């Protein structure tokens, strides 16, 4: 649980800020006309309801999403507010080809797959910059702190360097708004969940050249697992300075302290079977994570031809993990062990680019050239006891591994438009140097370099239908060590490489806020990193590398209608084949990779009549059957989760309560809990949860 000092900080935050802000809102309510205040800034991600219009992640320049010849999904601010996700995994629950369902309930990590490939090490980006994770020191996302996210499907190394073949998730941090915006919220729910949050933004001076935003959250919560908390303190300040229309500097920062449970695993009595016996020890189960980031985005427009940008960020994560487990000794009762793992992860990223806009005859060009640099460093320590909690508490964890990595990349991109055609051409070369040390203090060094490219073509018809095709590649050096199949020798992981062919069509319905998309993709990957479910002598999970092929079809729709109805729908068919791996698995499907995934979500708000202000939402997430191990000897059952939402906007009836909204969200309404096995390690789905929130904007 949180320390006494941390609890006091959160209590002060909840009791001081919330009432004061509500009093101010009540004082002003009778003086202001009813306004629809939106949380999103529309700075680098332009959105309208559930539909995203423009983003710069696919190209590094502001581009209409429909013109990018690559599949892109966006989770908008309105979707986040309506669904109230607690984690990044939940935020991705209604996104095509995103699979956050492979490890059951585990609030410790944001572990998800994109187009069948694990993306939790190579697929994290924030504000266009790579978000590095260590083996266990992961930078964890707070959904309340973002104004949306973009999922770029398939390889993206031609612009972003280190990334995986399945794609990348880019988190868009809440940014300062040029209008006054205030929000306070209190939330309560199952498992004694209590949360208070605030979000304040607007001009800081009279001429509007200085903008600010402060976003904060405090939470005390238990979960369905005994001794497994979900506590958090989060604060994210941001400042934008705009001395003129051509220059802008935005500083983004965060400090966060989270306390989760250290063990999310249930005892597996036999191969491919999970019991109801929770492996964690409630008396030794705190996973304390302290994380921080600070960086800036600078942009200056010299002329119609040239704009320059520099984006920089420094990150740090300190993780202190208490965990435990059960094992069978043949005695009537299971025996227990306890572990203590600590890790520090530091990283720095900087991206320098120049944007050029020019014409060559009838062809319009938007070109980008740049150089970026990344540095990361982690150290890990571990201790294990088979005696008692007192024994492990008295141990000093011993060194279990470290790695430092430096990466430099140079890239160029040109998007050309002519008579409805848009041609994208991107190329990049990366140089990566890593130095690793294992738990025996044996040092190894490795230098990698690779070229990544992308070429894509789309054509906008007069009817709003946009067919497209692309070919792209990826390159991702891997942090940590792996074990070879067959020889079982330990070595530094080789880079993961991938290449994709994708064809698809996008449709913007004329005069409607509706987008439809379909894509067929084929991705080949070499030297992908996966966990095999076992541990080395230092207590680290063993990773191996294998070759995979992902092939599938995506269908996706997003719509926001003028009558108050918002809709999301997606379907993915995918087959994930092991091309090269452990003996007996080649040609099989990768474990926990369902062939069919379907989701649909709708939310309707009454804009008139007796029910004006009432909002009703419902969603279905269906995950099809999958194999529970790479040998394909048994299957995970399919599962369906139903989610509900109900809200009431009091301001629709009373101007004095303008901006006040009550909302209830139910996740997994029918308490569907089935086992899901990945690499023959089996977990349980999370059961039903209910949350109620009261929010005021002014």
Structure in words:
The structure is a single chain. It contains five helices and 39 strands. The protein is mostly beta strands.
Task: Provide the low-confidence segments as ranges.
Answer: 1-33
* CATH topology group: Maltoporin, Chain A
CATH architecture: Beta Barrel
Total individual domains: 1
What's the main sheet like? 22 strands, antiparallel, barrel
Task: State the helicity in percent bands.
Answer: under 10%
CATH superfamily: TonB-dependent receptor, beta-barrel domain
Percent of sequence in beta strands: over 45%
Give the SSE map.
Blueprint: H1 4-29, E1 45-48, E2 51-55, E3 63-64, E4 72-76, H2 77-83, H3 88-91, E5 98-99, E6 113-114, E7 117-118, E8 124-126, E9 129-130, E10 146-153, H4 157-160, E11 167-173, E12 181-189, E13 193-203, E14 210-220, E15 230-244, E16 247-261, E17 286-301, E18 306-327, E19 335-360, E20 363-385, H5 389-393, E21 398-418, E22 421-438, E23 443-459, E24 465-476, E25 481-483, E26 490-492, E27 496-508, E28 514-535, E29 541-560, E30 565-580, E31 596-605, E32 614-623, E33 626-627, E34 635-636, E35 639-649, E36 660-667, E37 675-678, E38 681-684, E39 689-697
């Amino acid at each position: 649980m949180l320390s006494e000092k941390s609890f006091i900080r959160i209590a002060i935050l909840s009791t001081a800020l919330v009432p004061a802000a509500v009093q101010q809102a009540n004082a002003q309510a009778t003086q202001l006309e009813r306004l629809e205040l939106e949380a999103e800034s529309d700075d680098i991600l332009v959105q309208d309801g559930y539909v995203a219009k423009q983003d710069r992640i696919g190209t590094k320049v502001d581009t209409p999403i429909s013109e990018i010849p690559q599949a892109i999904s966006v989770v908008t601010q309105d979707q986040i507010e309506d669904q109230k996700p607690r984690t990044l995994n939940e935020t991705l629950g209604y996104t095509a080809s995103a699979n956050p369902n492979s490890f059951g309930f585990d609030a410790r990590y944001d572990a998800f797959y994109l187009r069948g490939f694990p993306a939790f090490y190579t697929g994290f980006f924030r504000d266009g910059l790579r978000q590095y994770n260590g083996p266990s020191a992961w930078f964890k996302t707070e959904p309340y702190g973002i104004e949306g996210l973009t999922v770029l499907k398939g390889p993206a190394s031609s612009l972003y360097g280190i990334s995986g073949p399945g794609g990348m998730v880019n988190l868009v941090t809440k940014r300062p708004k040029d209008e006054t915006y205030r929000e306070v919220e209190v939330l309560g729910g199952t498992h004694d969940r209590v949360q208070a949050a605030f979000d304040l933004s607007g001009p800081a001076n009279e001429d509007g050249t200085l903008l600010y935003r402060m976003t904060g959250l405090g939470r005390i919560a238990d979960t369905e697992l005994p001794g497994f908390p979900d506590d958090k303190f989060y604060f994210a300040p941001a400042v934008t300075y705009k001395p003129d229309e051509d220059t802008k500097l935005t500083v983004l920062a965060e400090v966060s302290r989270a306390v989760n449970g250290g063990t999310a695993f249930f005892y597996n009595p036999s191969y491919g079977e999970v019991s109801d016996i929770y492996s964690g020890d409630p008396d030794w189960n705190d996973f304390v994570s302290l994380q921080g980031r600070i960086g800036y985005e600078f942009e200056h427009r010299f002329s119609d031809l040239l704009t320059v940008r520099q984006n920089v960020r420094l990150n740090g994560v300190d993780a202190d993990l208490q965990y435990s487990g059960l094992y069978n000794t043949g005695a009537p009762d299971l025996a227990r062990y306890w572990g203590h793992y600590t890790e520090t992860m530091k990283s720095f990223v900087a991206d320098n680019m120049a944007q050029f806009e020019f014409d060559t005859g009838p062809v319009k060009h938007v070109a980008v050239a740049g150089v970026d640099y990344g540095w990361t460093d982690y150290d890990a320590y571990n201790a294990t006891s088979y005696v008692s909690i007192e024994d492990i508490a008295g141990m000093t964890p011993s060194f279990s591994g470290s790695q430092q990595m430096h990466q430099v990349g140079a890239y160029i991109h040109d998007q050309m438009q002519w008579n409805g055609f848009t041609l994208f051409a991107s190329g990049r070369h990366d140089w990566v140097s890593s130095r690793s040390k294992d738990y025996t203090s044996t040092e190894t060094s490795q230098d990698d370099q690779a070229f990544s490219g992308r070429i894509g073509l789309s054509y906008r018809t007069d009817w709003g239908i946009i067919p497209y095709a692309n070919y792209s590649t990826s390159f991702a050096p891997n942090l940590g060590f792996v074990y070879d199949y067959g020889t079982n020798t330990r070595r530094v992981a080789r880079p993961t490489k991938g290449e994709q062919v994708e064809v698809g069509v996008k449709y913007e319905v004329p005069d409607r806020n509706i987008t439809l998309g379909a894509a067929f993709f084929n991705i080949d990957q070499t030297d992908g990193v996966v966990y095999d479910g076992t541990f080395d002598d230092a207590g680290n999970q063993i990773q191996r590398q294998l070759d995979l092929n992902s092939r599938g079809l995506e269908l996706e729709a997003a719509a926001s209608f003028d009558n108050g109805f918002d809709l999301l729908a997606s379907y993915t068919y995918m087959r994930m084949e092991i091309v090269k791996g452990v003996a007996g698995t080649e040609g099989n499907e990768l474990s926990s990779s369902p062939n069919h995934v379907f989701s649909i979500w709708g939310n309707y708000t009454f804009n008139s009549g007796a029910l004006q202000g009432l909002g009703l939402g419902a969603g279905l997430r269906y995950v099809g059957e999958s194999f529970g191990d790479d040998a394909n000897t048994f299957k995970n059952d399919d599962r369906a989760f139903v989610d509900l939402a109900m809200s009431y906007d009091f301001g629709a009836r009373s101007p004095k309560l303008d901006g006040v909204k009550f909302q209830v969200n139910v996740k997994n309404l029918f308490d569907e809990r089935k086992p899901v096995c990945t690499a023959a390690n089996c977990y349980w789905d999370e059961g039903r949860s209910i949350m109620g929130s009261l929010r005021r904007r002014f």
